[in-house]
Design brief:
Elements lengths: L3 E4 L2 E4 L3 H13 L4 E6 L1 H9 L1 H8 L3 E4 L2 H11 L8 H15 L2 E6 L2 H14 L4 E6 L8 H14 L3 E5 L4 H9 L6 E4 L3 H5 L8 H5 L3 H8 L1 H30 L1
Parallel strand pairs: 3-4, 3-8, 5-6, 5-7, 7-8
Antiparallel strand pairs: 1-2
Helix pairs in contact: 1-5, 2-3, 2-12, 11-12
Amino acid sequence: MKSVSNILGLSISTTPYKDTASYIIELAANHTSGYFCFANAHMTVEAHDDPSFARQVNDANMVCADGMPLVKANKILHGKRIERVAGMDMMPTILDLSEEKNLAVYFFGTTEDVLRAIELECAKKYPNLRIAGKISPPFRQLTPLEKQQHIELINDSGAHVVMVALGCPKQEKWMAANSPSIKAVCLGVGGAFPVFAKMQSRAPKWIRDFSLEWLYRLSQDPKRLFKRYFYTNSKFLLLLAKQKLSNSTKIE
């Protein structure tokens, strides 16, 4: 099931979108412990800068190409176009399939306001969806007792899927550390929460297709994101050029 490409050290899945969704649901229906990461340029650079984080991401059941830069990077590095598997698309897909299959979903992360808005949206779009519960953890280091209590709440709820939104790299680290103890599939969907809740807008499709979704997000929050995107995008392109050169040298 797991076919991957090496992009800057991350094992990016080449599995098509529909098959990825089916795999998630298959694992979830059996209460299988596991987690899925949705990688963009930011996560890729974070993983390059932190080998321990790279291992945590690569230990996932799948590392999906969330951003168009990774889709295009795969074409540049390996000569094949892969399908984009974005967390913002996967979240509603899994909610829809969970309603269809009568699977229970848990929401972990972000704020109480966002979680309430998600519940309202789910009630409109998926009236028969089983919401097992929701937790908005405090924005600080959790105590071991709090971590254990969260795991117990999730397991006791009977959840099949846990949507996780703590931001990168926090959510990936949380999933890597806690997934073995959780009887459900965890999805690190990050920014999908406020978009699904209609508290933030998503870039139009034509902007996403041109790999400019980061620019759209930057325009919404320039003060917070300018430094991150300037560093991340520049380094991503530099690392991509180095890997391409390295691949070419090996072929020769």
